[in-house]
Structures are given as C-alpha cells and as structure tokens.
Design goal:
The complex is a heterodimer of chains A (about 120) and B (about 120). By secondary structure, chain A is an all-beta fold. In chain A, about 0% of the residues lie in helices and about 55% in strands. The termini of chain A are far apart. With about 120 residues, chain B is mainly β. Classes of the chains: A mainly beta (about 120), B mainly beta (about 120).
C-alpha cells in the first residue's frame, strides 16, 4: 500500500529565506506521481507542483521546486524567497503507486513565515 | 469561471438529519472524487467516480451515498448524520483516469459540515 510521511508538523521561516518541507513516500509500484498542495487559512486546496516517477529532472514552478530523490523515496518541497502569503498548510500527496487515481495525502506541514 | 464548485460552503445541521452536498466541474474531466478532511486536517479519499461509474469506495459508512447524474456532477448525500461526520468535505476532479501520473486534481472550495 502507498504511504506519504510528512515529519514536520510545523515550520517557521523568515521572510525572503528559503525553506524545505520534507516528504517521504512508500510504494513498490514503479509508476506514480507526487504532488504538493497548499491550503491557506481560507481553506481551499491549491495545486503547487507535480513530479512524475519517470521524470528525469526535478520539477520547478516559479518559487517552488521539488527535490526528488527516487532512491531515498523523498520529494521535498523547496520554497525560495518566502513571502508572508506563503503561510499555510502544505500537503504532499501521491497518486498511483498501486492506489489507482486517488490522491493519498500526508499529514501536512503548517508553515509560518515571519518578518 | 469556477472550475470545481460545490455547494453549500457551510452546513450546520442536527444529528439524525439527511443532507446533500452538490459538486459540479466545468473542466471536462472524466474523474471526480470526494475527500474528507477531519479536525486534524487529515485528508482521505471517500469515493471516486469515472464517467458516472463508481471506481473507489473507501470503507465509508453506508449512510454516505454518492450520486453522479453525469460526468460533470458528483453529489454526496448523507443520511442520519452523526456528530463524527463533522468535517470539511472536498470535491475534486482530474483527467487521465487510467494513468497513475498525469495532471493534478482540481479541488472545490470545500463544504464545512457541522453536526450538532
């Protein structure tokens, strides 16, 4: 069965600094996709970035990059130049990996950006 | 133009009542989902439909019944509501239902259900 682990319940970062949110996953299936979602206090789920298991390069989307280390089964999210608006809950999720098309989520990391 | 819309946004109701949450997507996606987010913010799949056909039913009580009249709509009906049903319910949709990777799921804004 597939599993996503986020070991950081909460993180603090200063404005303009970079921050890494950890995510490890477990699956024996070679085909899967990894996603990061942001959930601000208003509650909506916002897609940030995607990495496919066969992708050779790490995904990047603006200030977001995904540090994909397949052998370690990790898919950490790096946010560069943090902004106050980045304060939110961040979820790592996996699709596929033997679980079909549903998303399996981690428990989330609450990020707080400080002045 | 909202991609995935669900109504209502807030729902407060008494134990024992029956309620429905509606969801519509205008993205042309084949697959729609219901997720439940509990008080600890944990998100878990409840149901998945592909072209009106039930694909995933993840050990959800029979009191929960999804209905998909067409591939753009997936409604959730809950009978005999219990205190433990209080949560945020998210509808989502995605394309490429037969590939493990592919595009992201788009989420509705969530329905906060409070059972009193």
């Amino acid at each position: 069965a597939q599993k996503i682990t986020q070991t950081q319940p909460g993180m603090f970062v200063q404005e303009k600094e970079a921050v890494t949110l950890d995510c490890t996953y477990d699956t024996s299936d070679p085909s899967y996709g990894l996603f990061w979602y942001k959930q601000p206090s208003s509650g909506e789920m916002i897609f940030l970035i995607y990495q496919g298991s066969y992708d050779q390069q790490n995904a990047t989307e603006g200030r977001y990059s995904l540090n994909f280390q397949k052998a370690r089964k990790s898919a950490n999210l790096v946010i560069s130049a943090s902004q106050l608006g980045d304060s939110a809950m961040y979820f790592c999720a996996m699709r596929g990996g033997g679980g079909g098309n549903k998303l399996t989520f981690g428990t989330g990391t609450q990020l707080k950006v400080e002045l | 133009d909202t991609a995935v819309s669900q109504t209502p946004k807030y729902l407060v109701t008494q134990m024992g009542n029956d309620k429905s949450i509606k969801c519509e997507q205008n993205l042309g996606h084949d697959t729609m989902y219901w997720y439940k987010q509990d008080s600890k913010k944990f998100l878990k799949i409840m149901f998945s439909y592909n072209n009106k056909e039930l694909i995933i039913n993840e050990t959800v009580p029979n009191r929960f019944s999804p209905k998909s009249p067409d591939k753009a709509h997936l409604n959730l009906h809950i009978n005999s509501l219990e205190l433990g049903d209080s949560a945020v319910y998210f509808c989502a949709s995605s394309q490429e239902p037969h590939r493990a990777s592919g595009t992201e799921a788009f989420f509705g804004q969530g329905t906060r259900l409070t059972v009193v």
